[in-house]
Structures are given as C-alpha cells and as structure tokens.
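Wed. Picked up where I left off yesterday with NigD-like protein. The coffee machine is broken again, so keeping this brief.
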Amino acid sequence: MKFLKMKHMLLMFAIVVGMSACSEDSDPIPEVFTRFGFMYTDGGNYFIDIDGGEKLMVESFDDEGVELDAYDRVLATFSIKETPEETILYDYLVELKGFYDIDFSDIVTLDDDSRDTIGDGFITVTDMGISENYLNLQIFYAQQKGSHVFSLCYDATQQEDGEAVILDLYNYYPEEEEDGGANYYTYQTYDLSELSSLLELNEDNEIEFRIRVNKGDSQEKIYQVVYDPS
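Structure written out below (tokens, as returned):
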C-alpha cells in the first residue's frame, strides 16, 4: 500500500473516520492525532516538529512521490508507535497516516504598486486557530484554472482610529483563466510574529486584530482575533 499524500482536506477527514470505524480486528485501534507542524528529512529519516515543541520521528514508509523542501508546513495525521526512554533525538516514533501540504507565508504589507494586484476571488473561512505564532485557516473556495494565492494583507489606508488593526484575506487567480470549477477546502498558515511590530499589547499582554474576507462584497465578513505573542 503506497503512502498517501493528501491533496484535499475532505480526503483526510474521510480516512480518519474510516480508520476509526474499522473494528473487525481484535487488536485495539490506536488513537489517531492530527497536528500542524513542519516536516523535513535528516539522515534519511522523516521528522515533524509539531506546534507546541514536540518532535516526531516517522516510522519507515513508502515515500514514493513525496517531495519536501527544507522545512515544509504540513497538517499531519498519525498514531504513536513508541515513546523512547531517552528523548534526545525525538519525543515520539509515529506511524504517519497521511499529510496535507500547507502554504506558509508572512503577512503582506500593501503599497500603491501591489494594492490592485492582490486578487478579489470569493472565499469563506470555515475554521481558524492559532498555534504558537501561526495563524491556521481552513478556506473554502471555488477552484478556477491557474494557481490560487491566498494572501493575508496589512494596508495602512484601511486602518481606522480607535479600532483594532484589520487584515484583509485575498484570493488571487488569473482572471483570464476563470472557468468555474469545483469547490474545495484548503489550509493556509500565516506567520503572526511580525504583528508585534505593527500593534501594541493590551493590558493582558495580548494583541487584538481583525480579519476581513470578501472586502466590499455583500458577503463581507470580519472576524475578531486575540493573539498572545509570548
């Protein structure tokens, strides 16, 4: 059975549910976890540094077709096979059920040159969470021809006195290639560490900001976010 590198979140959920439902074998079903992290290779082994600081070493698997850059952002599904007595190299040996590649980027600061090129494709944020300094979004969108680019942007001209900073989430794709494809979910992660230079901490040492989607559309929506940078 070849290792599965999942391309859409619906596949991941179906596989996890399927594993949980298989109860014909007498052996207990191992608990399955899904975590965000960064995946890489070292000395011929695969490792995942999951958000929160723990390191996973991946049990040997058929990695045909798996392509990794130096340090790829992933959402991984796994079960724990072993906890070593000494955790110098890793905290857990795991069986990797699958993983989903996640686009990882910084917040974009817009200026006069970039403001009109960022895109205006419709999107829906279906899930949102923060782990360490990373904002993780699940996005629902209509697939068009060409590559979609989802950018979280800071625009000084959009800020209002007395209001929390607002960041706009944009969906760019080549307009000339639009053809109305199927709807998909995807995950995006944004590095929030630079927000501390744009904002001030509140009395609880937290950063408050807003995320807006579909700016100027009848389905515009604004999310209130509180972020602890410590």
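Quick read: The longest strand covers residues 32-42.
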